[in-house]
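Example (one chain per record):
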Amino acid sequence: MIGVKRKAWAVIGVVVVISLIASSFAGCIGERETSVDIIKSRGKLIVGTSGGFPPFEVINETTQQLEGLDIDLAYRIGQELGVTVEIRNMDFAALIGAVKTGMIDMAIAGMTITEERNKSVAFSKPYFRADQAIVVKADRTDINSPADLAGKKIAVNQGTTGDFWVDENLVATGLVAEQDVHKFGFASDALLELVADRVDALVIDSPVAEMYVARTSGLKVVYTIVTNEYYGICMNKNAVELIEFVNDLIEEMEASGEMQALIDKWF
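Predicted structure:
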């Protein structure tokens, strides 16, 4: 009789241990922190951008703070998450690496969604459409189209689709020497190169080109290169919940007219 009782208690013990182990595993899975949870626990959304790219991200000369369409969008996402926002200003070409390594939660920098970039990072739904444009000094009459850039010196924002367009259409075809393409981490430095007459032209996103011409005397846009690009918010591929969160917010902003109001504010 004693032996039977011992066997019964032993069976109960095994069942309890198995239950505890199963419960433990279930708890781990259920309590896994998502990419959104991590940001909420931190209390801060870290956003990378690249200044000097009006009207998306540019330094306000009075406050010395970054402002623009992308900056407003960053703060709107932070508001929806219920956290503060830290903006990190960096070279455009460094943004994707910063997203991949987790240095920043997302990059909002007028970044075009491309097939090549999609191989290493994820993008939100598009929120803005753009083309490329050629900007020159207002007194130049010899540059009116891409063909006129042959043999000229050109400034670009490194790592952007404008940079890629020049490489693919002018350098690779032999129209422009590689050393005659001056690349800069910040778009505003590429603009200064043109203003200082160290290059003949600047190739940059069309809305930014128009804004430069409006704000800087002595410049003009001579040609719009139709590239049909769409800007998206760049995030880590593993941040599945964050990507879904941002896409839901963009959809909500588009449906309510808030996104168009934001665009109208800066254009």
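Caption: The first strand starts at residue 44 and ends at 49.
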